[in-house]
Each structure stands twice: as structure tokens, then as C-alpha cells.
Design brief:
This protein is 32% helix and 21% strand. The radius of gyration is 19 Å and the shape is globular.
Amino acid sequence: MSSKRFNKLPSETSKLQAKTIENVLSEVKKNCTTKFDESIDINLQINHKQKKSEINLRTIVNLPAGSGKKIKVAVVCEDAKSKDAKGAGADIVGGEDFIEKIKNGELNFDKLISTPLMMVKLSKLGKILGPKGLMPNPKLGSVTDDIIKAVKDAKSGQVEIKSDKDGNIGLSIGKKTFDDEKLIKNYNSILEVLEKEKSSNTIKGDLIKNIFITSSMGVSYKLKLPKNI
């Protein structure tokens, strides 16, 4: 059953004519009627002509205006790199002792970064970290010797782009309190990454069928599809 607040929002907005993000952000923000700072989210649907089993998108994007979320970053590294990790802003830093804590179920972090050397031992915890989406991955920049860059990227607004089994990609481009310019910059950065992914995967035809935008507790609007994606 919908709340009184939700019932006051516009209905069937997703059926309206698609607009550019510049022309729809004001409406999306107007629908943010909760007391908290709602996220502004987008949902991208992969074109049904593409075989979903062959389209397994998983990459990262550095949002230029940040995500607006506080990310708790943990680092598994050798003692020699622990100072760098802490200096870059890591919330938790440890070595084999920390791996043992993870093995015992201590997963009080949002992002886990590891050096290649420690990854050999950490990889044995796939059954614990994998289902939570916390296993470090070299393709996503979370298995690296450049701990300083990895931590700073994670803290400053790096988010993962990942398609689910139904061919949907959902992620936030920021918060209601962000200026429109910042939200648009973040949105365009995501589109740029998807365009590169399309080229590198030699995907023929359109990759994305539809894009919708909404707020955490709002209603969705259809966005006009950009070219080349």
C-alpha cells in the first residue's frame, strides 16, 4: 500500500516523452519530499537484441563530483604499505591478522582493496567476500600496489557499473542537494565509460535500450538516449 506522501507524486511519469537530463532534473528533485537527502538514481536497460548472456558489464567510473556517500574503505597489505594506506584515508588497514578477522565474518566495510601479494591469501575467502560483492578485482582497480591511488579513488566517488542477470544497470549519480551541474557531470561520465565498454567489447548495434531517472523515494522519468551507446 502506497503512503500519502507517495500518492501525492505525479503518476505514470515513465510513460511521458523522453527528455534530456538537463530538462528533467528539476522535476526529479521536486519529487524528493522525504526528510532525508535522497539519492538521484539511474537505471539503464540493455538492448533486448543483445544476448544478455554475452553482455556481462562490470567496470568502474570515477564520478567527477563524487557520489555523496561515505564509503568505508578497508585495505589488506604488507606492513610496509600500511602507512600509505592510512595516509590516503583508509578506515581499516591490516595484513594476515585482518584476513583472519574477515574469515571469521567481520565485514564492517564497503570496499576492500588488496595488494597483489596479499591477494594470494585473500582469494581463499571467495565464498565469504564474493556473495557480498567485496572481493577485490584487478580489473576494478582494487588489486594494486598503488594503494594510495586506489584508496583516494574509492573515497572520492568511484562506483561500480555492473549489469544484473536481467540486463539492468542501476547506480546513483549523486544526491538531491547536488547542483544540477554536478549531477549532469556524473551522468555524462557514466555514459562515456559505457561508450568505451561498447567499443572494447565490439558490440554491434545499440547497447542501451532505455534509461530512467528517479530519486530514492520518487517516481521515474524516461531519459532521451544519447548517441553512440
